Amino acid sequence: MAKTIQAIRGMHDILPGHTSLWQHLEAIARQTIASYGYREIRLPVVEKTELFQRSIGEATDIVEKEMYSFDDRNGDGLTLRPEGTAGCVRAGIEHGLLYNQTHRLWYGGPMFRHERPQKGRYRQFHQIGVEAFGLTGPDIDAELILLSRRIWEGLGLDGRLELQINSLGSPEERAVYRGALVEYLADSESELDEDSRRRLHSNPLRVLDSKVPSMQPLIAGAPQLWDYLGGESRAHFERLTDTLETAGVAYTFNGRLVRGLDYYSKTVFEWVTDELGAQATVCAGGRYDGLVSQLGGRATPAVGFAIGMERLILLLEQLGGPTGGDAPHAYLVVVGELARAQGLLLAERLRRDLSGLRLMMDCGGGSMKSQFKRADKSGARFAFILGEDEAARAAIAVKPLREPGEQRVLAQDELADHVRAVLRMGD
Ligand code: HAM
User: Fold this and answer.
1) C-alpha 308 to ligand 1 mean position (Å)
2) CA–centroid distance, residue 333 to ligand 1 (Å)
3) How far apart are CA 148 and CA 182, in angstroms?
4) pLDDT digit string (tens) for 387-403?
5) What's the pTM value of the predicted model, to 2 decimals?
6) Residue 307's beta-bridge partner residues?
7) Which of 31-35, 310-314, 325-329 comes out lowest in average pLDDT?
8) Is 310 in the pocket of ligand 1 (CB under 6 A)?
9) pLDDT in tens, 45-84
10) Residue of the nearest CA to atom 23 in ligand 1?
11) Cα-flanking dihedrals φ and ψ of residue 52, to 5°?
12) Which atom of ligand 1 is nearest to the CA of 131?
């Protein structure tokens, strides 16, 4: 036998038993996002490598070691997108969407990072991202947080996720803080683990993110970014927290929340859960007022977030979320040539007349018994049975497969109304 080929490590197939939960999650997210007036933008999966280097930052884990980068046949340096914000900003600048305008946008799709795969962390994963451009105030930061909360509500996850927020201030404020932090950490350089020592000069704020246990006392004693924020940054943050309180959104202030991408300023936030082990963040984002100009556009304030779909799916599965919603409503059993020809046309008519009906017609034939086995396996609620007898009389039998009830025989012309009534279609 020929050798089989496997998928790439960390890149997963989503099999039919799982896709209905994905569709459910996507539908709730889309409806919720649309209900706030956000519009979809579709972006390429591949961009120039330089885009990510200049936006996410050279000294981040993503750019340093996680990107799928390659030279294409023209010798251009390209990268499979590790996230969506950079591409969204690139598109906004390229198509003149940003200057002096406001835009509320969303996108979805696969992202790629060469991380060490484990539960909740993959090399191809999916995000739904939301980005708002042209709005400076904390009211839009609050709107995004409320929007995300409404998605959790729609999924029955309200109260299961904790909102952590912080302010990273302006780049100038952060630069002063960075100096103080480096000085503090350099004093205890021997206590730093290898990663933190490497980051000390390239990206010292990320040291605060270290999960290494021996580092925790040092991190706890580090200077606080909040103490370095100026009046405007503090006022922005306080207006945001006031709005969250008014709207009844519980939050935790986490002064050590720094995020793994360099483009943030002021508000940053993450929705975390303690039900997924180490990969606790299911949604993350913040303000990135400097990024548009950094990428060559005119200065435009911006804020957004992205949901990690796999993590949300894991959480929903763990909580016993809805599955199997895509089984057919009915399975049409046909015995005999006349019945098969008639059944085909009847099935076509039903699908046309009853939008939303999932009707599977038997293929392959065989005895009534073997067709019933297939009907049962399909998960259908009803079998429609068309034998030679029924075909001769333009009748059809309807048999419930998953609920009590007798088999009934109807005229084929009555079937659409009957199905509409029992499936409550059009309610
Ligand atoms: P991020 O924190 O890098 O932010 O990713 C957002 C979310 O994507 C994470 O919270 C997580 O749920 C999910 N995620 C990230 N990496 C993986 C992975 N390897 N496997 C599974 N899930 C993963 C961003 O990407 C920003 N672009 C978010 C943003 C939008 N900020 C402003 N606008």
Assistant:
1) 6
2) 47
3) 35
4) 999 999 999 999 999 99
5) 0.93
6) 128, 283
7) 325-329
8) yes
9) 999 999 999 999 999 999 999 999 999 999 999 999 999 9
10) 308
11) -75, -35
12) 33
